[in-house]
Design a protein that fits this description.
Elements: H1 34-37, H2 62-117, H3 123-126, E1 141-147, H4 153-169, E2 173-177, H5 188-199, H6 209-219, E3 225-229, H7 237-249, E4 256-262, H8 268-272, H9 275-280, E5 281-287, H10 291-304, E6 311-312, H11 314-326, H12 331-345, H13 350-355, H14 361-366, H15 373-401, H16 408-415, H17 418-422, H18 452-461, H19 466-479, H20 484-509, H21 514-546, E7 560-561, H22 564-571, H23 575-584, H24 587-590, H25 608-616, E8 622-624, H26 625-636, H27 652-682, E9 686-687, E10 696-699
């Protein structure tokens, strides 16, 4: 699955994080040259690893050079596109958290002023190694409880790291503590060492809070001190309690403001902390956006809007949505899927793509008569135009149902479904014309065969009031700029809405008897309902005529990633199958000259575990250990000339040496057999014997 990493430098700590994938998940190394596969001879059985230096560049196969060049081009394209996507995601998440971060920042500075109003110790008091004795009110620890709404732990790390950087940029002294700093093994000393390491840039032992007080009193007393704990539910309650009590005692010398992340509910602190620690807290509540809201923002910026120039197919989108849900709504997992998807996107060289561009399945369906550069350019232009229309309709549907918890990820999966698009039929197929929304008969049209989310969004329009409808049409107008086919219809409906508003205001100015007031109100409601129906009909026509999925457009294979199996293998993997393949096709990994690729013959030079697994293929569910061992022994101990019977009987001393050698060889073979069986058990391909059947092992995996 991956190219060889023998020559690569050791990875850094950042290289093994969940969100920093290396591009060897999907990309595969080119096949070996034929000269490297040739065996050096069949008579020699000792394994020989080819350590010869690489051939000069001028003697390489031109096809291999071309493949290397194409690989470099694909990697450059990947790096460029992924950097753009990564930057877009970073900006989106920053914009989502801006309002909450600004609110927390304002609260921190107000709290700092409140603490300073209680009194500021002089330099002598501030540098003493004991806290200032004050009343109970002066020992309150201002605490911000940030509700993450059950965000995954990985997402919490990113969010609170960004919060720390934001507060530092505003002049605060910030330290980020994780749940690993609050474990019972290290006690409160682990928290203090982490604080000193971040504030003083050094680790002192023993750790003492008075050192931090001296540091703050000497030259850092003008700015607040903020301590961020990302998830209190993962912390040891007793250590966190002692930490809170200690900070509250020193709050006059060190104006500490505590910010703690809460994943589930705000009542969690009462279940973790004892009453004496809770009494020291002065809590304030802040709420971050839900994972679904953050996901919608990422989907809109990366997949719906033209961010990177590529799209994904329906099956891939459904898999990514299910993967997001199965990972407990982890935004990091979705971003990880995007990166793996991007790695796998650039699989064809430009030459191969250009050579077969008119033979693509989507192109064959439309039967293009002219296969020229001009026709191809026109097709690409048409694809771009249709995608802009699709994008505008999807966003119109999203803003319509956003207030009613319509999720963009679900809407996106329905909007790119080619089968659903092909089933969209009306009983009366009338084209969207200028006066279609003005016709009262349009309200009797049968409903469009559509998905649940799309149907819900259209249904919501019919229940809008005149004021809500006016705001929605204004948003539609902005979203459809550049698409006159839709934008003109939205403007027409807006003008009709203004006329109805003018009529209603004139009726309100006329003084009428009370018996006519109810009739006028009823007429106004009917007019409003008529306009809502017309807006719903317009949205329905937009879905029918302008929301064409990319998989229904010619040449979409060039820009659309549809290989869901490749993505699934890269994200979830199939380790058991990979192990079986490697054991059966070990020549591709070892590159030894003694083993002939494609041959089923078992040789003593093969890896012991590979020999054992190949022998296991001859058995059923159960493997007789004695027979298995004898087969293994016959392979690894092939008779040689030294073991043939000589014509003369050996001397007694030589016979003794031969017996000892044979005993040592037997013990060594048994040890190799046991080690290979253990390796097969560890890899999950074999179940060891039980007390009921001690002579049989059981195979677990069958087939590939």
């Amino acid at each position: 699955m991956a190219s060889s990493l023998d020559d690569a430098s050791p990875p850094s700590i950042d290289a093994v994080t969940e969100n920093n994938l290396q591009p060897f998940f999907v990309l595969q190394k080119g096949s070996l040259r034929k000269s490297e596969r040739k065996s050096s001879g069949t008579g020699k059985t000792r394994r020989r690893i080819d350590l010869s230096p690489a051939l000069p560049k001028n003697s390489e196969n031109p096809e291999d050079e071309k493949e290397d060049e194409n690989m470099n081009l694909r990697m450059e394209a990947f790096e460029f596109v992924w950097s753009k996507i990564k930057s877009t995601i970073k900006d989106v998440l920053r914009d989502i958290n801006t309002s909450v971060f600004s609110e927390i920042q304002s609260w921190v500075h107000q709290t700092f002023d409140t603490i300073r109003s209680l009194g500021t110790p002089d330099f002598l008091e501030a540098t003493q190694s004991f806290p200032v004795i004050t009343d109970a009110n002066s020992r309150k620890l201002f605490t911000g409880l940030v509700l993450t709404k059950n965000m995954e732990f990985v997402d919490d790390l990113m969010t609170f790291d960004a919060l720390g950087k934001h507060l530092k940029s505003q002049g605060c002294h910030v330290a980020n503590l994780s749940s690993l700093d609050f474990i019972a093994k290290n006690g409160i000393g682990g928290c203090l060492r982490s604080l000193l390491r971040q504030f003083l840039k050094s680790t002192l032992d023993p750790a003492d809070i008075s050192i931090l007080a001296s540091w703050y009193g000497e030259e850092n007393y003008k700015n607040p001190v903020v301590v961020i704990v990302d998830d209190i539910e993962r912390c040891c309650g007793s250590v966190l309690s002692d930490f809170i009590l200690m900070l509250s005692e020193w709050v006059v010398k060190i104006p500490v403001i505590l910010i703690m992340g809460v994943a589930t509910t705000l009542d969690t602190q009462r279940n973790i902390l004892p009453s004496n620690a809770l009494q020291r807290l002065c809590p304030f509540e802040f709420t971050l956006g839900t994972p679904a809201e953050r996901m919608d923002a990422v989907v809109e910026a990366v997949l719906v809007k033209p961010c990177s120039g590529f799209s994904i197919g329906h099956k891939v989108a459904v898999f990514m949505r299910n993967y997001f849900v199965s990972q407990d709504g982890t935004l990091t997992s979705f971003i990880r899927a995007l990166k793996v998807l991007e790695i796998g996107r650039y699989g064809l060289s430009p030459e191969v793509m250009w050579k077969h561009v008119f033979n693509l399945p989507s192109c064959q369906r439309v039967k293009m008569t002219k296969q020229t550069n001009e026709s191809l350019a026109h097709a690409f232009s048409e694809l771009k135009r249709l995608q802009n229309q699709w994008r505008a309709v999807v966003l119109c549907l999203y803003v319509t149902g956003k207030g009613e918890k319509v999720r963009l990820l679900d809407l996106f999966c329905e909007a790119i479904d080619p089968e659903s698009y092909n089933k969209r039929e009306f009983a009366t197929c009338t084209k969207l014309e200028k006066d279609s929304i003005l016709s009262p008969s349009s309200r009797q049209r049968p409903s469009l065969a559509k998905g649940r989310v799309i149907f819900e969004a259209i249904h919501l329009v019919r229940d809008l009031s005149t004021g809500q409808l006016g705001k929605l049409l204004k948003i539609w107008k902005n979203l459809t700029v550049g698409i006159p086919e839709i934008n003109d219809k939205v403007k027409e409906l807006q003008s009709l809405l203004k006329i109805e508003d003018g009529k209603s205001s004139k009726k309100d100015l006329i003084i009428t008897p009370k018996r006519h007031a109810s009739r006028i109100q009823l007429d106004n409601e009917k007019d409003s309902k008529s306009l809502s129906d017309k807006a719903a009909n317009l949205l329905e026509c937009m879905v029918r005529d302008y929301m064409q999925p990319i998989e229904c457009i010619p040449f979409h294979e060039i820009f659309c990633f549809k290989n869901v199996d490749k993505l699934q293998l890269a994200l979830i993997g199939d380790p058991r199958r990979r192990i079986q393949v490697d054991l059966l096709e070990f020549q591709k990994l070892l590159h030894c000259s003694c083993c002939i690729s494609g041959s089923n013959a078992l040789l003593p030079s093969m890896h012991d575990t590979s020999i054992m697994y190949k022998l296991a293929q001859e058995h059923g569910d159960l493997i007789n250990l004695h027979d298995w061992y004898q087969s293994f022994k016959s392979v690894v101990l092939r008779p040689s000339s030294s073991k043939r019977k000589s014509r003369q009987s050996p001397l007694p001393k030589k016979r003794k040496d031969i017996n000892e050698t044979e005993n040592q060889s037997e013990a060594s073979t048994q040890a190799r057999f046991c080690r290979a069986v253990t390796e097969l058990q560890i890899t999950g391909l074999l179940r060891m014997p039980t007390k009921r059947r001690p002579d049989f092992a059981q195979r677990v995996a069958f087939g590939l």
